[in-house]
Amino acid sequence: MPMDEAPDLGEHARRAYQESADRYVERAETNLWNAHWDRPVIRSLLPPIAGKRVLDAGCAGGANTEWLLEQGGSVVAVDITPRMIELTRRRVGDRADVHLHDLREPMGFLMDRSIDVVLSSLAIPYVQDLRPVFIEFRRVLRRDGCLVLSTHHPFTDWQWSDLPRLLLHGCRGGSLERGRGASLLAADDGRAAAFPVPGRLPAGWVLGTEPPSDVLSQFPDEDVSRTPNFVFLKAIPDPVAAEH
Fold first, then answer.
1. Which pTM does this prediction carry?
2. Is 124 exposed, middle or buried (0-12, 13-18, 19+ CB in 10 A)?
3. Which domains does the chain have, with CATH numbers?
């Protein structure tokens, strides 16, 4: 690959998770990072789910899909990896509408303003250009809906990854912003999101959140104190943009 050519994060993720899907899902059932950190925090940001139609964008093996169903939601689950889709369908059967889908492409199976909640757990780090993804989230969300997502904190990705160029493309010149009129992510490399965050966020940024000490004590070999690990966000569609 030429040095100035950006790697395809989506294809990288598809191949990597196709090979490791079963191992990943098994570990994620009980590990600190998924089971005791990402999932509890992202779920805590959700509104009541009963009676809501929810898009699980990047469903992996279906853990959140199953939980959303248990809360009384109607779920549309998508993932880019065929094996993850197989595992999700095995887990939830026909209780959810499950699609093999690349978030970089339009969701032709969803009508405008047909979704109450978009939940996206640790999926957007694998998307180079976030703009079409958030345009599509905004399209399918009802005006009173919300987006709840988690993503890797760029500092942690940089520290632990053996693919620094891949991460530089995702984080170069970027910043996290908050407040009236701020974008979800702002960067100078084309990753600025088309999902403006209004001043009246239902929750806003949650940065550097750690699991409770009693949970951390169960994982003495995991060092979570050196850098932030995740970023969590709850946002509502921009009411001005929603009119266009």
1. 0.78
2. buried
3. 9-243 (3.40.50.150)
